[in-house]
Design brief:
This protein is of the alpha/beta class and 197 residues long. It has helices at residues 7-18, 30-39, 51-60, 81-86, 135-156, 158-164, 166-170, 182-188, and strands at residues 2-3, 23-27, 44-48, 63-66, 92-95, 116-119, 122-125, 174-175, 178-179.
Length: 197
């Protein structure tokens, strides 16, 4: 079971399908679920995210991948401690959302040196900065995506670069001493100010 269908959730589903797993992807967007259904040609079960659906499918899961992301904000706690308690003994939770607080009430950050712990018979893998396990590869991948934004800022200045790139503009968290990202403002308890440059 994969919670979330962004890059991480879609990749997790792809790997699981490639290994022959029976995969269920749970997401909150109908468009996203249709994209997943088309991308996997019906080989993945798609389920609209409700509290009842999350609980039902988590109870059946051998592996639960928490891949939810709310840009700039803490991850929503979609998996309750009661749901974890009702899961199969020996099931595994991989909470990729742990860098944003985790999507299960029982999630707490672990390290590469001590990566797992068990709650109610469910193995939790909640390593913060999971890409750090392959530091060189992940750095190359991250740099290839972020370098164009850095170059645009260096060559044009932040205001001009943000004006010409909606993606860059959406990534600005603070500007002129103010928090200009609503998710960051909410999760940090700061006043939000509209970005205006």
């Amino acid at each position: 079971v994969v919670l979330g269908a962004g890059v991480v959730g879609t990749t997790a589903a792809q790997i699981a399908v490639g290994m022959g797993a029976d995969v269920t992807v749970i997401a909150r967007s109908g468009d996203t679920l249709r994209r997943i259904d088309a991308q996997f040609d019906g080989r993945v079960r798609t389920v609209f995210s409700t509290a009842e659906a999350v609980e039902h499918w988590c109870r059946r899961a051998d592996l639960l991948v928490g891949a939810v992301l709310v840009p700039g904000a803490a991850a929503p706690k979609l998996v309750s401690a009661q749901t974890i308690k009702a899961m199969k003994r020996g099931a595994v939770l991989v909470d990729v959302a742990i860098d944003q607080g985790g999507c299960a009430e029982t999630s707490k950050p672990t390290t590469h040196d001590n990566p797992i712990y068990i709650v109610d018979g469910v193995v939790h893998y909640c390593v913060a900065n999971m890409p750090g396990a392959v530091a060189r590869s992940s750095t190359i991948a991250l740099t290839s995506v972020t370098l164009p934004y850095g170059l645009a800022i260096a060559n044009q200045g932040l205001k001009t670069a943000a004006h010409t790139s909606d993606a860059l503009k959406r990534g600005i968290n603070t500007f002129d001493g103010k928090c200009v990202h609503p998710g960051v403002a909410k999760s940090c308890g700061l006043p939000y100010a509209e970005y205006a440059a």
